[in-house]
Design a protein that fits this description.
The protein is α+β, with helices and mostly antiparallel strands. It has helices spanning 5-19, 63-70, 98-106, 110-118, 128-141, and strands spanning 27-33, 39-45, 48-50, 53-59, 73-80, 85-95, 153-167, 175-182, 185-191. Helix 4 crosses helix 5. Its cofactor is FMN.
Length: 193
């Protein structure tokens, strides 16, 4: 086994991308410490692994963004059905630069960009039809125009301190390997199933 958890992650991720029938193989569960002290989890799309960090994006004023602003401690969980593998990550999130966020925003579909400018993610609404009307109006406005990243849209780089890889086995002797960062070096521990 590789002593570098990022090499192992990439190896597993490429395998999942090559074999998965899922429409969203990059989906992962992000868990934060809620503003009320309770854990809070939701699924997002991993944008990439870069410079030994995991990159996610979204509205900075969403509940997720507000929770990360209050506490940078975050967990990421991947479950890959096709390869029967799970990866659990704990670490600290820091905001990516505005230029980096703009680059990720440019990669979004036009519909996703429009939703990002008309919706305040997680806020209440009295009538969804009002948002649909705003969407239609924005569609017309931006028919032949580029949509720029809103100021409240950004992303986070999650620097892990702990990564656990688990490969499920029919025998129930699941293979579990824990990488922990200590003094800027990764140590490896085998965990019981």
């Amino acid at each position: 086994m590789s002593l570098n958890p990022f090499q192992l992650f990439n190896k597993w991720y490429v395998k999942e991308l090559d074999t998965s029938t899922s429409s969203l193989p990059s989906a992962c569960c992000i868990s934060t410490i809620g503003l009320d002290g309770y854990p809070n989890a939701r699924f997002v799309s991993l944008k990439e692994v870069r410079d030994e960090t995991f990159i996610i994006t979204g509205p900075l004023q969403s509940r997720k963004g507000l929770e990360i602003e209050k506490s940078s401690k975050i967990a990421i969980t991947f479950w890959w059905e096709t390869t029967q593998r799970q990866i659990r990550i704990q670490g600290n999130a820091t905001k990516i630069t505005d230029d980096e966020a703009a680059t990720y925003f440019d990669l979004r579909t036009k519909d996703s960009k429009i939703i990002s400018i008309i919706s305040k993610q997680g806020d209440t609404t009295k009538n969804i039809d009002t948002l649909k009307q705003k969407f239609s109006e924005a569609e017309s406005t931006y028919e032949s125009k580029n949509i720029l990243k809103p100021k409240n849209w950004g992303g986070y780089a999650i620097q892990p301190i702990r990564i656990e890889f688990m490969e499920f086995k029919k025998s129930r002797f699941h293979q579990r390997t824990l990488f922990q960062l200590s003094n800027k070096e990764w140590t490896t521990t085998i965990l019981q199933p």
